[in-house]
Specification:
Radius of gyration of chain A: 38 Å
Number of helices of chain B: 4
Number of helices of chain A: 27
Order of helices and strands of chain B: EHEHEHEEH
Structural class of chain A: alpha+beta
CATH architecture of chain B: Orthogonal Bundle
CATH class of chain B: Mainly Alpha
Oligomer: heterodimer
Helix content of chain A: 40-55%
Shape of chain B: globular
């Protein structure tokens, strides 16, 4: 205890040093005086009294020094001393310090930002109770190898009845609901959910309750649970919200619960504001199809404690087998398997490779940054040789010198780190501006303690990394030699020069790997952007809406509404053409049906091939500029009750009607087998993503196949944005209470569909550019320094007849030799490393020769430039001045 | 000078505590003189050890210090025993007696038993 108290007192004494020093001086002084007084009393002369007293006291300064050591903590004091000295040195070399701090701030900042994203997205568990138990259940079309499909209500119910490994299985269906708030209609993201959803996710409503089992039955009461965000934004967090009724989709709905603010549901974007029970109430499908295996549910499960994912998966497979045998007629009976993945994996898995690539990229940038600073420090330590030699001569041990120099570099990296963390905080703010869903869990990203510890460790490691070699080398110098040279800027030590050369080679190699990776990603992204989507997105504006079931119960009413909407919008000045479609390309949603074409043996639903279906008005194809290849588009005579017609895409024509004219042939939806006449063939459209293959598609006239949810597309002769208000006006004239779910320029839809690869490419590109810049600075630095050091030698060479061209060639050659070595090492490493990128690349080989060639060329140009500037300075050396120098 | 012994390590603290107990608050010079006198001038207190020893005792809370004025009007830092110091003195004194007793038995002429 006492020892601890002593230690504490010593620690405290590190501060307020001057006051304590004065105190000691006073005490010793008073001691001396008392002694002198005594001696005088004994009859000594004043001089003698003083002499005796001083003798007795011993060396005042020595006493003070021993006292001081006892008083404080010598280790900490040395550290403080080193820090003060380091700060002074950094202030003295302001240029070096600024460059180093900027380099470090950029690289530590980038590392901190990327790590904070990885920490939040990949490392942290999902924010649910015992989230490791949560799984995501999907079906796979075994025949086609298409994974991640939805699950049918029937199959989900079957699992619910039979499972032993799961404590609960829940499902959701994203929908929209229109909410009338003081006269202005508003469309809200919503979800149908099974009654046990909140229980499965381990969330308890902060107000009210969740759904009761009887509310999840056919004919249950109209109730809803709302999100905390919605509760605050629309009701000001009023406590009497429970028991209020809202008008949603024209129905009176009783609010029974509010979810806590901490509950997030990132599996649906934007996150639902309103939750309804009864997932089997899917107006788009109808009870008959829902009860026979139509797959439309997103399904989540919670494993029992102690059960593993593998056992859950095995059980799901077994249940799927008996389902197949018991319900052979169901759509999802034969060709579909049931799969389970951990919920977190389902959410963040697709992003893992991108994030790891980015982490590697920023790691490389940091490595190059460190290399640069190490190289600068090496150069500086050569010029500090004299200072260091004097310190050694005065008795500083090697360890002490190394510690001092390391303190300096860690101080440097700490300053860089502070700016870096500020920079990272700024970056994260930008990240939150991305469209929702681009990076899942982005709202959880923060600079928390874990991330800050990471940055601090990074700073220390960085400081040691770039400081260790130079400080070891510096303290190893031969004192006598250095002092004898009288501190003349002698030739740089061979060791120091060769370590600087190694650093440049390393730097170039790392830069090559990074630039190659970025190059491949850019080339892949470029290819992605040049994919012909099959339509023209420019100057097209889209408006999505859903007609509320209560007000438009008849399909004919829905069809009539959209017909009139198109008619009305087309009269607007500035609108070239307009049309509606049930699904928009590259916008996420789509619907497949089973079909059977003329000449095929029909096997019924679940076994026939599938085709993407969308309902359109006649002018939709023209509006989107989807080319009509054969036959005709729909027209006003294709109405309900007359000959059903269909337009197919080229993919269907080629696959099912090879070498024949499909016009006039028939195909049918396997469910009803009503034959539809093919009247046209149109070009293929990239529907699910620019990087996915074309799929079979068919277009039906919406007049013959109405739907409640549609997207209106208008093509304008110029920028369509100003037309939004007019379109809103026209829509309100037809129905004053119909909100748009989504208003987007088609070009934004296309660009949002590649937001993730764009982000990866932009970031990697930025980091590669940074790496290249740092490398250029590194090459320049080494050569510039060596030219300064060799001024005399260059002067002699020139005096002996070397031409300026030869000097230029010599210096550039010296740099390029290093660059070549780095280039070769870097290319070799790239060939291995870039294979890890393969999953991110579209239409580009990981060994794309063009990219590699471009990287080599780019690097050589940059290196030549970086070497040329110091070389020109070398060639400009005046031999007379150079020889007189020093 | 050469015949005077330096105070050996470990005992100085005990002597300081004992001096402060018997003399009351005292300055560093006074403590040194008192120790030298008590030893019959057989011991020489090295001031380079005295002040660090005082500091250590103070840091450990056995003594406390305060600036005051000496009998002949000199400013001086006075040290005085704290309660913890009194206890420590008792403990150390007992221990010391034990040690010397044991040593005395070793060093006294052997007795037949």
């Amino acid at each position: 205890m006492r020892a601890l108290r002593g230690l504490f007192a010593r620690f405290a004494a590190v501060f307020a040093k001057q006051r304590r020093d004065r105190d000691l001086s006073d005490e010793l002084e008073s001691h001396l005086q008392l002694h002198i007084d005594d001696n005088l009393r004994r009859g000594m002369s004043l001089d003698e009294a003083r002499r005796q007293a001083v003798l007795k006291l011993g060396g005042v300064e020595q006493t003070k020094e021993i006292y001081r050591e006892r008083r404080g903590l010598p280790m900490i004091e040395t550290l403080l001393q080193d820090l003060r000295f380091g700060a002074r040195m950094l202030r003295k070399n302001l240029g070096f310090t600024v460059v180093a701090v900027i380099t470090l701030a950029l690289s530590i900042g980038a590392n901190t930002a990327i790590f904070s994203v990885i920490d939040a997205v990949l490392l942290r568990p999902l924010p649910y109770k015992d989230s490791h138990q949560l799984i995501f259940i999907t079906t796979t079309n075994v025949q086609k190898g298409v994974k991640g499909l939805n699950v049918s209500f029937t199959k989900m119910t079957r699992v619910q009845e039979q499972t032993r490994t799961l404590q609960g299985i829940a499902a959701t269906l994203p929908i929209n609901t229109s909410f009338s708030n003081r006269g202005t209609p508003e469309q809200l993201p919503a979800s149908l959910a099974t009654a046990n959803l909140f229980e499965v996710f381990g969330v308890v409503p902060s107000l009210g309750r969740g759904f009761r089992p009887e509310e999840d039955q056919e004919g249950g009461a109209d109730v809803a649970v709302i999100s905390d965000g919605f509760w605050h934004s629309h009701f000001g967090g009023a406590l009497d919200i429970i028991g209020r009724t809202l008008s949603l989709d024209g129905k009176s709905v009783l609010i029974v619960g509010v979810l806590p603010a901490t509950f997030h549901f990132p599996f649906q974007q934007p996150e639902p504001d309103v939750w309804f029970p009864r997932v089997f109430d899917n107006p788009a499908l109808g009870p008959a199809r829902i009860r026979s295996g139509a797959s439309y549910l997103t399904v989540y499960g919670r494993l029992r404690p102690g059960e593993s994912l593998a056992r859950g998966q095995a059980e799901l497979e077994a249940i799927n087998q008996t389902y197949k045998q018991d319900f052979p007629g169901y759509v999802d009976a034969s060709n579909y398997s049931l799969d389970a993945v951990s919920l977190k994996e389902s959410l963040v898995g697709p992003l893992r490779v991108s994030l790891l690539v980015l982490l590697a990229a920023v790691g490389f940038v940091l490595m190059i940054g460190c290399t640069n600073i190490a190289s600068m420090l090496l150069a500086r330590s050569t010029s500090r040789q004299r200072e260091i030699a004097i310190r050694q001569a005065m008795g500083a041990s090697r360890g002490r010198l190394t510690r001092q120099l390391l303190t300096e570099s860690v101080l440097l990296s700490a300053i860089g780190g502070i700016f870096g963390v500020i920079l990272a905080a700024g970056c994260l703010r930008l990240l939150r501006l991305l469209p929702p869903g681009t990076v899942p869990r982005v709202d959880e990203v923060s600079l928390d303690t874990g991330v800050l510890i990471f940055s601090i460790v990074l700073c220390v490691v960085t400081g040691i990394a770039f400081g260790l070699a130079p400080s070891l080398l510096a303290s190893r110098g031969d004192v006598q030699e250095t002092l004898k040279e009288g501190g003349r800027s002698a030739n740089e030590g061979r060791k120091s020069r060769s370590s600087r050369a190694v650093l440049v080679v390393l730097e170039v190699a790392v830069a090559v790997v990074l630039v190659t990776s970025a190059g491949l990603l850019m080339r892949s992204f470029g290819k992605l952007m040049h994919v012909n989507p099959g339509f023209d997105s420019s100057q097209v504006m889209t408006f999505t809406m859903t007609l509320p079931q209560p007000r438009y119960p008849q399909q004919a009413q829905q069809s009539e509404f959209y017909r009139r909407l198109v008619e009305s919008v087309q009269t607007l000045p500035g609108v070239q053409t307009a049309g509606v479609s049930s699904f928009l390309p590259l916008n996420g949603a789509l619907r497949y049906v089973y079909f059977c074409s003329q000449g095929m043996v029909c096997q019924g639903i679940g076994k026939d091939p599938i085709i993407a279906i969308r309902q359109i008005t006649p002018n939709y194809l023209e509006t989107m500029r989807i080319p009509l290849l054969r036959g005709r588009a729909f027209n006003d005579r294709d109405i309900a009750g007359v000959n059903p017609v269909v337009i197919i895409n080229q993919n269907v024509a080629n696959t099912y009607f090879p070498n024949q004219d499909p016009i006039g042939k028939h195909l049918a939806n396997s469910r009803d087998m009503i034959q539809m006449e093919i009247v046209g063939v149109v070009g293929d459209v990239k529907f699910t993503g620019l990087d996915t293959p074309y799929i079979p598609e068919m277009y039906l006239p919406q007049s013959q196949n109405p739907a409640a949810t549609m997207t209106l597309a208008i093509r304008s002769s110029s920028n369509p944005q100003p037309l939004v208000a007019a379109v809103r006006q026209k829509t309100a004239e037809l129905d004053s209470d119909l909100p748009f779910t989504q208003v987007l320029a088609m070009s934004d839809v296309v660009s949002a569909s590649v937001a993730q690869p764009r982000l990866t490419t932009q970031f990697t590109g930025f980091f590669a550019a940074l790496a290249l810049l740092l490398t250029a600075v590194g090459i320049y630095g080494v050569l510039a320094y060596s030219v300064t050091q060799r001024t005399r030698e260059l002067g002699i060479r020139m005096a002996l007849g070397a031409s300026r061209g030869e000097i230029l060639k010599m210096v550039v050659g010296q740099g390029m030799r290093l660059v070549f070595s780095g280039l070769i090492i870097g290319l070799a490493v790239s060939l291995v490393v870039t294979r890890l990128l393969a999953t991110l690349l579209f239409g580009t080989s990981a060994r794309d020769p063009l990219t590699f060639a471009a990287v080599i060329a780019l690097l050589l140009v940059v290196a030549l430039l970086a070497a040329y500037i110091p070389a020109r300075r070398a060639a400009a050396v005046d031999p007379i001045v150079a020889l007189r120098y020093e | 000078m050469t015949d005077k012994k330096d105070v050996w390590q470990g005992t100085l603290a005990l002597m300081v505590l004992k001096t402060l107990q018997s003399m009351g608050p005292l300055h560093g010079y006074g403590i040194a003189r008192r120790i030298e006198q008590t030893s019959g001038d057989l011991l020489a207190v090295n001031y380079g050890t005295l002040y660090p020893a005082l500091l250590k005792l103070e840091q450990e809370g056995y003594i406390s210090s305060e600036w005051g004025v000496s009998e002949n009007n000199r400013k001086a830092k006075y040290y005085k025993l704290t309660r913890a110091g009194r206890k420590q003195l008792d403990a150390e004194a007992r221990e010391w007696e034990q040690t010397t007793e044991i040593l005395a038995r070793f060093l006294s002429p052997e007795q037949e038993s």
